[in-house]
Queue: 2 jobs
Job 1
Amino acid sequence: MDTMKAVRVEVCGAAEQMSVKEVPLPKPGAGEVRVKLTACGINLIDTYHRSGLYPLALPTGLGCEGAGLVGALGEGVDDLTEGDRVGFAMGLGAYAEAIVLPRGALVKIPAGVSDEEAAAVLLKAMTVDYLFNDTFPLQGGETVLFHAAAGGVGLIACQWAKHKGVKLIGTASTQAKCELAVRHGAESCLLTDDPDLSEKLRAQSPGGFPVVYDSVGRSTYRLSLGVLAPLGTFVSYGNASGPIDAVVPGELALSGSLYFTRPTLATHMARPGWMQASADRIFNLIERGHLSVDVNQRYALSDVVSAHQDLEGRRTTGSSVLIP
Ligand code: NDP
């Protein structure tokens, strides 16, 4: 086989801009590995790449997360063999039958974790790992606010918070999503469109929250600012409803000398040794039964347009995967 199927975007825009093309099978160069993909993770960031919110050179492949079998090794890669099971959380072009990545971008998948689980969890759980252990290190005992608690990142956050002894108060758009978040360990979950949401959140944490993890952005920014405790930390890590227009330093002052941070997984991935250490923490949680991977939507590669429409239309819960 010297060609493969891969999703391509030639012009940024709506989901229909994606199409599956027959493209040359990439060859690994020195220090690189070709992975025959068995499952590709779907993330909201893929829709930002497709729409142009996060600009990429065009035409482009899509998809950052996946898992599969080592298919070919480039010169100098001597610690993997063909057939090894590997996964990754930052490799553009994962919506495909195969991908070539530097050896350093891959982690070996242990026997107790399936390819599909690895493809559905790595990027999302590494995000929760840095949010909870680096951006605002949680010690246990805190009560925190976490928006979109029933999503891919969200259901992992609910479980990890529970495991750390942290009370996670979630928000989600439907009662069914709220119930799912609570079943995954959230202390409680409130409806996003509740007109009394601010008041109800203040009742959950009377002095205010020490930290708010906000991936929704534009539509939750003001609410999040208003429920933080003095000296609290606003963690803005996504734009599901669109980016926040502007952060005004004076508002952070008036809301109680707040800290504001806009972290990315890429920054943490660039820290020497961090990616492997994070993968070890995640696989360990799965193998010890503290973290279950909820693959609640599966799509064929040819159904990628529906997959994005469902994610952007808020019709998904937990993780979604494409099966090439
Ligand atoms: P999700 O599965 O969480 O899907 C996004 C969710 O956002 C929806 O299900 C929906 O939940 C909620 N949402 C709120 N408002 C809107 C809106 N207007 N349109 C669409 N969705 C909305 O996605 P992921 O798990 O892939 O990612 C979660 C968030 O984390 C994203 O914002 C993503 O960009 C961010 N992220 C950031 C990273 C970083 O390092 N900075 C890394 C990984 C993810 P509901 O219906 O309950 O409101």
Note: Residues 139-262 form a domain with the Rossmann fold fold (CATH 3.40.50.720).
Job 2
Amino acid sequence: MDKPHILQVGPYPEWDQTPIDAAFHAHRYFEAADKAAFLAEHGPKVRAIATRGELGANAAMIAACPKLEVISVYGVGFDAVDLDACRARGIRVTNTPDVLTNDVADLGVAMMLVQSRGMIGAETWVRDGSWAAKGLYPLQRKVWGRRAGVLGLGRIGYEVAKRLAGFDMEIAYSDIGPKDFAKGWEFIADPVALAARSDFLFVTLAASAATRHIVGAKVIEALGPEGMLINISRASNIDEEALLTALETGKLGSAALDVFEGEPKLNPRFLSLPNVLLQPHHASGTVETRKAMGQLLRDNLTAHFAGKPLPTPVI
Ligand code: 8YV
């Protein structure tokens, strides 16, 4: 039987590309110089889109594929997929939840530690000879025992909070309501009130139109000149303009960010700020987790074409 045609929006590691090419006719959108011409040529044959969390599939891409049946996302976030367009045409959407939760939580906690203890500057202090020339590295701020806020106690937020409990931190969280499993952690519905009582605020919300800029100037200023904002979700959850202004004026102490508006081309104002830790959207970026994500992406496509239930459907 002829292999199904799929549109591949972004590159995957070789260990995923090889089995993808064995099972499908993969049309590599990311390699096309003229995207519109590429879609016009291949779109009519395409029955599935394989994409990544940050790349998604927009309305124009979906419209260019009249035979589209399923979109498989390599990532837990599906905010970049036009779900309304999919619902209107009965197109299924899948993602890769669970397999990446622990790595994303690990990186968030690591970012807090690295930034609070000034480890990037400390590394430079050793390498550039400052230690020998100037002596002791400037004192930093402690992490253990301080107050952490988790905005969004879903799978990733829960794993972050569990790890923070290991640092004897006082943990509070915001969500649509209190969670039964969050014993000993304080529920604070209002993100501004959560930020006001927190030294560290983790943004772990699934992004949607409803959460856009949920972390705005009020939340940022409530976190304050001693506070740190850590974002391992999506840039759209934060008003980046308000964040940059607060970091520049000292209204916010510091930030540790894995995601940016327009990434990978981030706002150049970030690059000159000394009080921000910048990471290249790699919270799920370990060999183990990316292999599991690739397997799940393919399992969803394989199940769809075999007429079996989708392992991890979104819609
Ligand atoms: C990935 C992500 O970095 O899970 C998500 O939503 O954004 C990340 O895990 C991305 O999908 C890999 O390209």
Note: The mean pLDDT is 98.
